[in-house]
Amino acid sequence: MKVLELIVQNKQEAMEAEKLGAHRLELVSAMKEGGLTPSYGTIKQVIESVNIPVQIMVRPHSYHFSYTKDDFNVICEDIDMITKLGSNRIVFGAIHKDGTVNEEMLSEIIVKFPTIDITFHRAFDEVVSQEAAYYTLLKYKQHVKRILTSGGESNCVKGKDKLAKLVKLSHDQDDGPIIMPGSGLSPDNIAYIHETVNAEQYHFGSAVRIESSFANGFSKDAVDQVLNNLF
Questions:
Q1: Rounded to whole angstroms, how far apart are CA atoms 206 and 185?
Q2: N or C terminus: which one in the chain shows less Cβ crowding within 10 Å?
Q3: DSSP secondary-structure letter at 177?
Q4: What stretches of 85-201 show up as alpha helix (H) in DSSP?
Q5: What mean pLDDT do residues 212-228 have?
Q6: Which residues have a Cβ under 8 Å from the Cβ of 229 and sit 6 or more positions away?
Q7: Three-class secondary structure of residue 188 per DSSP
Q8: What is the dihedral of CA 218, 223, 224, 225, to 10 degrees?
Q9: CB atoms near residue 120 (< 10 Å)
Q10: pLDDT band at 135, cuts 50/70/90?
Q11: At a CB cut-off of 8 Å and minimum separation 6, what does 112 contact?
Q12: Selection from 74, 72, 59 nearest residue 29 by Cα
């Protein structure tokens, strides 16, 4: 089953995205910083206002993905808050400075929050080997359900061939993390990219908004075009 995931920033956008046909949402704040953890109030409002799944960004700052112990304590406090609000869905990624997945942080989160559902985010695009990183995350497939990536490139157009290989790799596994292309996808290029990549899930941000800006709401025409090209 194909899934369209849309980025939202608040309750109004979440309700609009659901109405337009999104299957899942990624809730973030501070899109100018690439997406950070939303506030308690925003998370509460959004998860209470929609019926579709909401993955909540857990990212304490935008400087890098190799977190300190203090950073990690903040991350765990935020996940604790999310679970107390009744959600178990997060978007999270941590890597070491050498470009490998930080398994210690990942496994500690899973121990602390055993029902957690994780999208490993685009920290995956900064690892030294995406294939090796995929096999690392495969060990945590009960909790790492999907990987958001542009194939290690700046966008999915440049990364489409690498994405195709990653999608094939994921299909060869038994219930391994799904590869979800994101970054640089648009209503105009999704059919072309899907033809090469053949993913089941796609992640869209500003390209489905009025004037392609997070300052504006969704463009119904843009969302319709994406849905028509994928379904």
A1: 9
A2: N
A3: P
A4: 103-112, 130-138, 160-171, 190-197
A5: 98
A6: 187, 190, 191, 194
A7: coil
A8: 130
A9: 28
A10: very high
A11: 76, 79, 80
A12: 59
